[in-house]
Amino acid sequence: MATDSTKDHSCENSALLAEVIYRFAFDAAHRPLPRDAQAARLRLEAGNRAFAELLVQLGSSKAKALSIDIDPRDIGLSPRGSAAPVQQPFAAVVGCADARVPVELIFSEGPNDLFVVRTAGNGIGDDVMGSLSYATSHLGDSLKSIVVLGHSGCGAVSATVDVYLQPAKYMNIVPLKDLRCIVDRTLVIVQLAATWLERAHGIEVIRQPGYRTALIEVAIALNAAFTAYNIRTSLGLTGNEAIDVVYGIYLLEQRLVWSPRETDRNWFGLASAPVDANEFVVLCDLAVSCPRVTALLVA
User: Fold this and answer.
1) CATH fold of 89-298, please?
2) Is 284 annotated as a binding residue?
3) Which residue of 30, 185, 189, 249 pairs with 71 in a disulfide if CB–CB is 3.0 to 4.6 A?
4) Domain positions in the chain
5) Residue 151 annotated in ligand binding
6) pTM (2 decimals)?
7) Burial tier of 20 (Cβ tally within 10 Å: 0-12, 13-18, 19+)
8) Local structure of residue 270 (DSSP, 8 states)
9) Strand pairing of 81-82 and 244-251?
10) Tens digit of pLDDT for each residue in 28-50?
């Protein structure tokens, strides 16, 4: 990936140049697959930080580059000619269909590393669950983690928040069955987010200038966490140490993955899915009272 601009207002005299390089060699050592779920999570988090740091450095005098080593066999190449690769991803990612969230790129991964399923609002219907069931059943030798990845400013969640705040808007989507299905599925999460915001900040929170934006972002976090919980329980992965289920929110502005965590003040990274209702309640408390949401309320 290369970007070149002369219209950047923060550094008008500097060309912006960043390169993402996928490289391979037949005789070079290749990145080994993560040995367990913890190693898979750490690799994804490190890859995301590398991607974000690359773009933070834009505007400096020297071009910056991010090199991602890939196994040539993963793109069908071998010293003896072409051959279909064996599918062996180390993580499955349930992400939003939003084009601004290129999953492999933001985690600094290459081909055959991630098993990606994308839907609007990262919802889980039968087709998504069927895909994940296939992954856990047939790719279990390499698969160590399932990641639910939401993102800031999600259009599906934003549309649902607007229906919640102005119920008359629901009439506009009544004839649109497919879109209505997405809103219906997400509405309970938005209602939960609104209830928790009022508990934390009082009934007058709805009068805060940034209430709509804060409600959207809280709902995005709760939606990702609840989806991760749903996947864990539906696939029978509770207590499974071989495959972990985690979630995170990709912040479009910072290009970092973020998730509320009770045990860590640095919330950049992935978090384990809640295992029960008590953990989900703790997550709700964290999400509505965190500095990011508090700042959005008054913005």
Assistant:
1) Beta-carbonic Anhydrase; Chain A (3.40.1050)
2) no
3) 30
4) 89-298
5) yes
6) 0.90
7) middle
8) -
9) unpaired
10) 778 899 999 999 999 999 999 99
